[in-house]
Amino acid sequence: MSKKIISILMSLIVVASLIGCKNAEVNTEKKTETATEDKVDMEDKNLEGKWAKNYTLEETQKLFKEKLSKMENITKELGVKYTKNEEIKKEKEQSINDNSIYYDNAKPDANKIESMYFGMKTYGENLESGDISLKLSLKFDGESAIKNNDFDLGKTSFNKYIEAFTGQENRDYSVINKEIINKLKNGDKQIEINNTIDGLKEEIIATKECIIYKISTKKYKFADAEMSME
Description:
- It contains 8 helices and 8 strands, in the order ααααββββαααββββα.
- It has one domain (3-229).
- The termini are far apart.
- Strands 1, 2, 3, 4, 5, 6, 7 and 8 form an 8-stranded antiparallel β-sheet that branches.
- The chain has 230 residues and is α+β, with helices and mostly antiparallel strands.
């Protein structure tokens, strides 16, 4: 699979005419403009749980390193060749430092992971803010799921990565599984599901060919945590 999929995962922006992960067409500029900073800030303020607290840069980096080690161990267990990378780039005149682990699986079997990304981004020349996110894509056999009325996201490798991030073991995915299958049966071309888990934001997009998953922290404004400590 090409870097195009990682690009899709990095933004989790997919158009309604999505046809499989590999052939998805993405209009990032228009979609990004619709999700304003004000809306994101409001959503972040409404979060509750461990990850909704205000953390300093050092605290966030510590949490990221702990989770990064777990993500790397899982990937090694799966026997997948992966890349660890740290790069600084510019987006809309803003400096972004992206520290991550990721991989592409060129020819995944049905219901196997196509791409994985786990990273921490810090924003601004002085690292004023940052967030941590996990992004996954699955080559989904939706036709078989509909025919057999059987699919469990918890039995895919997604579960290992999600569990490593959230710390929640033995999660019940039955509600999510049912919603995906039922909506596909009803003719929905694309299903979108949003949840929160202990202050983390979970987003799922599914079609008959692909499931794209993202779970992320809020964007931490590190000065807020430092002020609360004074």
